[in-house]
Amino acid sequence: MAKPQSAPVMPGWYVISLRPSGSHAPVRRAAAALGARVFPLSTLKLVAMDAGPALPAALACPVVVFTSPAAVAFAHGPQPLRQRAGQRWLAVGSGTARALRRAGIGDAAVPEGRADSEGLLAMRELQALPGVDVGLVTAPGGRGLIGETLAQRGARVHLAEVYRRVAVVPSPARLRRLEDMPANCALLVSSAEAFDGLWLRLDASARARLRARPAVASSPRLAAMLASQGFGAIVLAQGAAPSHLLAALAADVGSGRFR
């Protein structure tokens, strides 16, 4: 006999997704599994970059690091991804590892703890690196923490920037709809740049309304950023994957924190 399905944990809830244009589907799937709905509000879009010879050079290194699912998608476009004998391919989190599996790389390693830059840099494969060639497939901008730390550990970093982030300005109508979101609504934050793209376009009253709602941060760094902006109800997730963000929020909703 089939087990009866449990009731959704978050019926009537909305989550505000700041993911880049065209990439809200994973959030919708994760939210729908919990009975929640998604309000997409992109402040960035992703655009391919021609990495030229830097990409095959990075992919030929003994250690290859991908920093996001988008890095996998844009690297896989110009050429098929193939893992050579003896190579170690590393992914910043489970979403990036899934993207690599879809591209034909079946055994990419992921951090055991946090799915972020700090978690990646804690992996044993990235500790002893003097003279080791490490390919870093990523986008320009951000903190630059991974590349800088690998270089400090003695690695020869081969950087392949395969996409870039371009600002998208939400329409005034979209921002007005944000203000009309119900009380059971949470903001998902996995990028400081995406958050800033929204925050800088809100007036004082709109910011106050958003601060009054829960915010889910994908890392302690982003949680601290939200706290510095006056957010009080902050939920810390284990990583930036939509499943991590929604699971953390659902746990707090289920415990009665946001009644």
How would you describe what is shown here?
- There is one protein chain.
- This protein has 259 residues and is an alpha/beta fold.
- The chain contains 11 helices and 11 strands.
- A 5-stranded parallel beta sheet has the order 2-1-9-10-11, sandwiched between helices.
- Strand 6, helix 6 and strand 7 form a beta-alpha-beta unit.
- Helix 3 packs parallel to helix 4.
- The longest helix has 13 residues.
- It is elongated.
- The model has no long low-confidence stretch (mean pLDDT 93).
Strand order of the largest sheet: 2-1-9-10-11
Give the fraction of residues assigned to helices: 25-40%
Strand coverage percent: 15-25%
What is the CA-CA span between the terminal residues? Answer: 35 Å
What's the total count of β strands?
Answer: 11
Structural class: alpha/beta
* Overall outline: elongated
Main β sheet profile: 5 strands, parallel
What's the helix-strand series?
A: EHEEHEHEHHEHEEHEHHEHEH
Count of alpha/pi helices:
11
Mean pLDDT: 93
Question: Segments where pLDDT lies below 50 for 5+ residues?
Answer: none
Compute the gyration radius: what is it? 19 Å
